[in-house]
């Protein structure tokens, strides 16, 4: 009993950071979808299309990275979040 492992504190810390990661994934997903919608809407407008495409690509890369990190950690969302919902 002298060398008993204290797992409780570690689990709470992991759960806290997993939740932060899930929130970041959700935020990045919303940003990416919004950027896609903006890019689609601005196709006919007279704006710098390359800049809009670059911003969309950046948001896609951020979302993909965060999603893969969550998957690598085997982090699972407790509730399903629907695109476009504003719970904040």
Share in helix: 55-70%
The description of the largest β-sheet is: none
Over the alpha carbons, how many angstroms does the gyration radius reach? 18 Å
Unreliable segments (pLDDT under 50, ≥5 consecutive)? none
Structural class of the helices, strands and pairings? mainly alpha
Strand percentage lies at under 5%
Task: Let me know the average pLDDT.
Answer: 78
Distance between the termini: 46 Å
Strand elements, count: 0
H and E string: HH
Principal-axes geometry comes out as: rod-shaped
Count of helical regions: 2
Can you walk me through this structure?
- By secondary structure, the chain is mainly α.
- Helix 1 packs antiparallel against helix 2.
- 5% of the residues are buried.
- The mean pLDDT is 78.
- This is YaaL family protein.
Quickly describe the structure.
This protein has helices at residues 8-41, 49-72. With 88 residues, the protein is mostly helical.
Question: Which features characterize this protein?
Answer:
single chain; 88 residues; mainly alpha; 2 helices; rod-shaped
Write the layout of secondary structure elements.
Elements (H helix, E strand, L loop, with lengths): L7 H34 L7 H24 L16
Helix pairs in contact: 1-2
């Amino acid at each position: 009993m002298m060398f008993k492992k204290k797992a409780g504190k570690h689990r709470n810390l992991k759960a806290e950071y997993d939740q932060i990661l899930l929130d970041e994934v959700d935020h990045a997903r919303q940003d990416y979808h919004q950027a896609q919608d903006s890019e689609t809407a601005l196709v006919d407008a007279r704006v710098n299309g390359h800049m809009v495409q670059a911003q969309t690509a950046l948001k896609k890369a951020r979302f993909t990275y965060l999603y893969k990190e969550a998957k690598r950690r085997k982090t699972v969302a407790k509730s399903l979040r629907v695109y476009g919902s504003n719970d904040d």
